[in-house]
Amino acid sequence: MSVVAIPTRRHPGVRPARPRSGPTLTITLDLVPGPLSPRLARLVQLLGELAESGEGQLRAVEDAAAVPRPAPRPVAAEPSADHVRILAGSRTVRQGDRVIPLTRIEYELLLFLAERPRRVFTRLQLLSSVWGYEHAVARTVDVHVRRLRAKLAGSEVVTTVYGVGYRLADEAPISVDHRS
């Protein structure tokens, strides 16, 4: 069983007289062993994005009598030559057999997008999340995306959403390994 608690959002200009906890919305999902349905997977993803943006908090609560989940399936056999693997533990990126030399920002940008597929980010959102500040020129993101694309030639990884920003390509041959 999973429990999600999302407290209400405070307005930036309004400050409470004394600290207190705001109203809480709690969502309980009884999950059965096995894969999630696409609609339920999307709901869990959206709740995670809300929590990630600071608008709430996501907690999983396990029952003592819960049925153990099956072990995750092993990764497919041999990836293609243009498959990009992000090895988060060693902070390296591999494309096929070769190591791709990325700067710190290029690596963080690629990891950020790979961990959030199917989501579009504006330049300002990327500056805030990847760079850690918003007071730079928004076109800085364009430069880093262009350099990242050049280094990952042969793999369509980052897609431009014209008039909005960037996102990970739908069919991007990319995987993130947090163990290595």
Describe what this molecule looks like in 3D:
The protein has four helices and ten strands. The protein has helices spanning 38-52, 104-114, 123-131, 139-151, and strands spanning 2-7, 24-29, 57-60, 84-87, 92-95, 98-100, 121-122, 158-161, 165-168, 174-177. Helix 2 crosses helix 3 and helix 2 packs across helix 4 (139-151). 14% of the residues are buried. Residues 63-77 have low confidence and may be disordered.
Layout of strands and helices, then pairs:
Blueprint: E1 2-7, E2 24-29, H1 38-52, E3 57-60, E4 84-87, E5 92-95, E6 98-100, H2 104-114, E7 121-122, H3 123-131, H4 139-151, E8 158-161, E9 165-168, E10 174-177
Parallel strand pairs: 4-10
Antiparallel strand pairs: 1-2, 1-3, 4-5, 5-6, 7-9, 8-9
Q: What key attributes describe this structure?
A:
three-stranded antiparallel β-sheet; globular; 180 residues; alpha+beta; four-stranded mixed β-sheet
Output the number of helix runs: 4
Helix content: 25-40%
Quick check: average pLDDT?
74
Oligomer: single chain
Low-confidence stretches: 63-77
Strand content: 15-25%
Give the C-alpha Rg.
19 Å
Q: State the end-to-end distance.
A: 30 Å
Would you kindly provide a brief summary of this structure?
This protein is an alpha+beta fold. It has four helices and ten strands, in the order E-E-H-E-E-E-E-H-E-H-H-E-E-E.
